[in-house]
């Protein structure tokens, strides 16, 4: 069956059904909705009616979006699958310039595949496979099999956007490094104090590239595991102990303090402990980094762990999947500058950073994207609640088993 097109199967069934039949008019069938008077099946000269009617009866049993067109490319019949999937857009699909030019060039026994994008009422990518089949007495029709490829199209666009963004983000520090190398070779060749200064900046840019690559690799690993549900059990107390250890060097001597408040005897939940620790580290790192704004003011970071239903969570929901089940909620709060409401739904997008903050210069914009993918893998939930001037709360919820 390898290499067989869906429209091969359709054409095969159609030919079987049409074989040896006489002519009969197709009466009382639902016609495709199309404003083009030229496409009105009532006006189209009927080809071998009996063969056609028999063919259509069989085609209507095939669970695919199928159209039967006359030799001029006008719709003679739209199968139930086509109606269900494309409804009123069928006329627009057949009239699409790409489809029309493929139909004009279609000879007997030929087939053609056309990809097209419909922009109204919503963007939709459609792949049409056409095949002209002989139905006897010198007549032929065109069978069209339609596929909705919008999802693949969106994934493909996201992939290309991602590559463009990632290369843009890497290009900026790379351009700075190249510039400084030129300066060190030329104007600053005999200026040791300037050399030291430039080398310091260069080390910073190299570290930025390193961090970006580390984040990209982490994101790609998380995405690769996203469709495999985690098999382990996560003990909240053990997670908090690791988070306390791993954040100690970040907090040491800085303006931020971490206050942990954990309910007693919290049950374990299904998940990947390393990933849950990663989520909390990313959130606490953000609270440390952005909590003090441009100043060095003291930041109080809270980490509160409770057993809760997702309905108890407040704030903007970012990609919720959790139902009404019970689970474990980790809330990371800070008393920093807060985030304007309009940014909240977009924070988990890759490379999204809030304009005009320290984040534009220091962050990669990937930390919360990683958080979101990990939470999705766990069927969990993330809400963000922020008040400008008061602070921000990120709450992560993981379901308990059952
Ligand atoms: N606690 C917070 N307070 C204020 N703004 C925040 C806070 N957490 C996140 N943000 C904003 O959300 C943006 C996205 O955060 P995210 O963690 O995804 O990326 P990043 O911190 O810029 O990069 P990375 O985490 O990879 O270093 C940040 O750039 C920042 O503008
Ligand atoms: Mg971050």
Automatic annotation (TrEMBL):
Residues 51-129 form the PAS domain. Its EC number is 2.7.13.3. PROSITE patterns: HIS_KIN, PAS. GO terms for cellular component: membrane. GO terms for biological process: osmosensory signaling via phosphorelay pathway. Residues 165-402 form the Histidine kinase domain. It is found in: Membrane. This is histidine kinase. It comes from Gluconacetobacter diazotrophicus (Acetobacter diazotrophicus).
